[in-house]
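Tokenise the fold.
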Amino acid sequence: MLARMSTEISAQTLTFLRRGQPVTLRHVAPDRTLLEVLREDLHCTGTKEGCGEGDCGACTVVLGEAVDGQLEYKAINSCIRLAHSVNGLAVWTVEDLANESGELHPAQEAMVQCHGSQCGFCTPGFVMSLFGMYQNTHGGKGIDRAHAQADLSGNLCRCTGYRPILDAAQQMGGLPLPQGCGVNEAATVAALQVLRKDQEDGTTYLRPTRLTELLRQRAAHPQAQVVAGCTDVGLWVTKMHKRFAQVLDVTAVRELRRVEGYPHHIAIGAAVTLTDAYAALVKDRPQLQTFAQRFAGLPVRNSGTLGGNVANGSPIGDSMPLLIGLGASVVLMRWDAKRGAIAHRELRLEDLYTGYRTNVMRPDELLAWIKVPRPTAGETFKAYKISKRFDDDISAVCLAIQMTVTEGVVAQVSIGAGGVAATPARARQTEAALRGQPWTPDTVKAAVAALRAEFQPISDMRASAAYRQAVLGNLLQRFWLESQGLQHINLDNLNAATLEALA
């Protein structure tokens, strides 16, 4: 990995906890990644760069943050995470797990005992994901195969295969924790509180903690690159070699880190991680559990935010078709200097986009909230993701369908589609072909034809245009079959053991 040199404008200090002690690095550029800092500045070469885009998990580290007096652990990809985003947090790398005598942490020892490593390049990332799982299950207790498979979906192995690694996940909870390998959570929380008090405002990496200050900084620095987890912007750095003289990070804003519940909708702040946002969506609609777990791997979901995914507007992003199908809206905010107050406007999510990765937001405006209606009586909702890999892959086609059938007639329908146009899109013509019609095979046949004709997708490495058009119609047909009680075609009914047997 080639080092990217800091410039005069980038002289900003970064401080985080490692092994319970503060680590301070000076003159860290705002667009340097956490992986670069760990490997080049701290010489933590156990953390590997595999893909440089958050796909393989070789670079996984674990972050710790004090939330309401408790330590929360998150495994994340360090290769696409900007270094300054961990300012004031705790960071664990694979070098931090064994004690001074060399005794291994249970996450490491289990990998040894289960023969979970071959070439070893992916092993540090797997170990760190296991460590995050260990901490989040109070010592690895009660981890079953499905849990292990879900939490390790962001780590790829090219030689050993996953069975021994899944075995390690299940066995680590039964191994002793050597003295010096555990985390002193009370001391870590106290140390993080001291770091928070000592933090200084930056000039090149801006990370405000209040909404008003965020909007004021956006108005003052419209040229700054906005980030909210860096799971896409990080690729601009690692793959496109973009440089950013100034970065505005929304993820520390307290108001935007909340999920708020109301009688008819939930409001998800732009700084809520994908992990927490999807948990809120699944709470209202449990049938979304598999779809939520298939949105990238856990380290990506732990870093990325729903607000960032929506604002980015990738035509192959999975969140937008889902939210369009749910009838979601977005709240845009800016600082009105004349009034000395926050100005806001709300619009349907599908109306946010004007073209490929372009939208209606003003230079001083930010996406602040996503409002998602709660389920209504009689609603049927399904979201489908078609990709080459089951786990940790980008969709070729994504389709979300919400429908209410009353006395055999389609009373309400909303359809969101991804991967078939320059933007995430609503299938308005198909909705019109369904609305007010009897829910019958003839209606479905006509709607399938309308859906295939409504979009003109492109051919690329993921799928041909003809394939995408065919699959769109097939998914609507599948929705019809499932509505008639045919459930064995649904992957939700396959458990982890069945999927492993088929692999």
